[in-house]
Design brief:
By secondary structure, the protein is α+β, with helices and mostly antiparallel strands. The chain contains four helices and nine strands; from the N terminus they run βαββαββαβαβββ. Helix 2 packs across helix 3.
């Protein structure tokens, strides 16, 4: 199975993303729209392939790392697009986010699970994927700028679909720091 480590934004941000996504998708043909019901807004840290029997070991390792991290602030700074027709809320890169991602990956790799961190890492909350790549750029330029801040205090291990969109939360961890 493939487990996805994500930052789960606060409920208010998930609701916001679930409301804005259908508006930005509009009448354009798309593969999916994040709705905060079947597809949950999230920021992927990385994913890892593992046998289902090792899931509880993964939970334990994640817990060991996450107990040493405090909640931190993240900022949505507008919209971003990516090759393939992706449109997302752009999150400003943050040293706390990068450290958390790195610490988790190191612990998991050290204990026999293999994950590769994509570089460059571009934090975001995906809204939709258009069927025609150029539509994402066109829609982006029509949108009004968005700025929003939130506290990242929940990390989840999830399952996702073929478009890397979270469909099920397996376990959530609250950051509290020590």
């Amino acid at each position: 199975m493939k487990a996805r480590f994500v930052i789960l934004p606060p409920k208010s941000v998930r609701i916001f993303a679930g409301k804005i996504a259908p508006k930005v998708a509009g009448l354009h043909a798309h593969w999916f729209v994040v709705d905060n019901r079947k597809l949950i807004p999230h920021n992927t840290l990385f994913s890892v392939q593992l046998p289902k029997a090792k899931l509880h070991s993964l939970f334990r390792q994640a817990s060991e790392v996450l107990q040493n991290h405090k909640p931190f602030q993240l900022r949505i700074i507008g919209f971003e697009t990516d090759d393939g027709g992706w449109l997302a809320l752009d999150i400003k890169s943050d040293k706390n986010l990068n450290r958390l991602r790195s610490d988790l990956a190191k612990k998991i790799n050290k204990n026999g699970f293999v994950t590769k961190l994509r570089q460059p890492y571009r934090p975001h909350l995906t809204l939709t994927k258009f069927k025609q790549e150029q539509i994402a750029q066109e829609v982006k330029f029509e949108l009004k700028p968005i700025k929003k801040e939130f506290i990242a205090d929940s990390i989840a291990i999830c399952l996702s679909n073929n478009f890397s969109q979270v469909t099920k939360i397996l376990k959530t961890f609250k950051l509290s720091g020590s």
